[in-house]
């Protein structure tokens, strides 16, 4: 009998957990995807790269939302069972409330392991792979470099300026400053290109310039000027200045642990400066410490089991429990930002959820011991 009840409760929880998690994730991912449109419009990456990059950020969003989704799901499950009078049936059938508390605690441990798996393995690997896509991506749309009355330097050592775009779709008074011989590879120095008119080719990869000149500066200081009636520049193979180096969030957990515990370990995100060390410790504390807040908020949601419909404060109980659970998660986000400053702050950060767990559990036992019907 108990196994059937536990299975039913678990299925109800998982249903709410998945719906809440992916619903909120979809909203945040959509907003984030709109912000990432700059990768196409400003940096000139292909739409395929943009789509893959945004999809690869999904694990980061999911990891961030797991504790909140667990809080929502556990409370919604209890409230649903209470609304349908199923909890009353369970109590009258002889089931102890602590049995449900223990079940929620066991479920929270499963979600904790899932959160650890996402935060330590899947999330950094996914973000690192997304960064690799940007690093290896080339400029796909020449038109992304051409913005009216703006100096566009999204490509390293290349500056582009156009005065305006006329009704024919042509660009007027075009200026290009090539410091790294990206365009004019035959020159040993920098190049400056002026053109009265220009337009983007049909394949969106080439810039056709009309009536202008190229000023080439050689290493010996001499300047050669070449005039042209029409010339074509292929901009498709250029790489943008989008940050390609992996950030601390994209570094593997093993490398961060080596950075923290092995002082001689050398890695890009393993700096010797106090600020870098603090950020490294904060990141590993976030990955390993945040999941341990899930069992705590699971026990907090169990206080909903104490509310009865006959109580005039029943309608307030769910808001109080949710507010307290949300406050715990809010405190965890604040605390993790300071956890990397010293060993003392790190110890406080990890002790907070682990130390409160037995206290909350004992309080639940004390609160429910007189409600056990059998």
Description:
By secondary structure, this protein is an alpha+beta fold. It has two domains: 2-137 and 245-368, no CATH class; 142-234, no CATH class. It has eleven helices and five strands, in the order ααααααβββββααααα. The chain has a five-stranded antiparallel beta sheet, with no helix packed on it. Helix 9 (293-301) runs antiparallel to helix 10 (314-338). The relative contact order is 0.11.
Short description:
The chain is built from 11 helices and 5 strands; from the N terminus they run H-H-H-H-H-H-E-E-E-E-E-H-H-H-H-H. With 374 residues, it is α+β, with helices and mostly antiparallel strands. It has 2 domains: 2-137 and 245-368, no CATH class; 142-234, no CATH class.
Descriptive tags:
374 residues; alpha+beta; 2 domains; five-stranded antiparallel β-sheet; 5 strands
């Amino acid at each position: 009998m108990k196994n059937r009840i536990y299975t039913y409760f678990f299925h109800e929880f998982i249903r709410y957990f998945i719906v809440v998690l992916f619903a909120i994730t979809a909203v945040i991912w959509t907003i984030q995807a709109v912000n990432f449109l700059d990768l196409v419009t400003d940096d000139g990456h292909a739409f395929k790269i943009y789509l893959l990059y945004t999809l690869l950020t999904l694990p980061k969003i999911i990891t961030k939302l797991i504790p909140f989704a667990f809080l929502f799901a556990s409370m919604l499950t209890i409230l649903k069972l209470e609304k349908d009078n199923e909890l009353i049936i369970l109590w009258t059938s002889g089931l102890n409330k602590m049995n449900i508390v223990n079940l929620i605690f066991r479920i929270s441990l499963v979600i904790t392991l899932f959160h650890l798996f996402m935060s330590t393995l899947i999330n950094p690997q996914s973000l690192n792979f997304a960064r690799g896509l940007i690093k290896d991506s080339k400029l796909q749309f020449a038109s992304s470099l051409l913005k009216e009355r703006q100096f566009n330097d999204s490509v390293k050592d290349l500056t582009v300026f156009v005065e305006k775009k006329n009704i024919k779709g042509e660009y007027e008074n075009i200026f290009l400053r090539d410091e790294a011989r990206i365009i004019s590879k035959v020159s040993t120095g920098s190049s400056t290109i002026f053109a009265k008119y220009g337009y983007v080719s049909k394949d969106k990869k080439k810039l056709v310039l009309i009536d202008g000149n190229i000023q080439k500066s050689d290493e010996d200081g001499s300047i050669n000027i070449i005039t042209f009636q029409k010339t074509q520049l292929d901009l498709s193979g250029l790489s943008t200045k989008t940050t390609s180096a992996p950030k601390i969030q994209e570094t593997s957990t093993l490398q961060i642990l080596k950075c923290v515990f092995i002082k001689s370990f050398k890695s890009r995100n393993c700096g010797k400066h106090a600020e870098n060390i603090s950020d490294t410790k904060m990141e590993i504390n976030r990955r390993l410490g945040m999941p341990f807040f899930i069992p705590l908020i699971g026990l907090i949601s169990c206080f909903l089991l104490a509310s009865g419909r006959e109580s005039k404060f029943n309608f307030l109980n769910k808001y109080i429990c949710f507010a307290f659970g949300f406050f715990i998660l809010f405190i965890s986000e604040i605390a993790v930002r300071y956890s990397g400053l010293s060993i003392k702050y790190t110890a406080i950060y990890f002790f907070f959820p682990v130390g409160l767990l037995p206290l909350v559990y004992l309080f639940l036992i004390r609160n429910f011991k007189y409600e056990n019907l059998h």
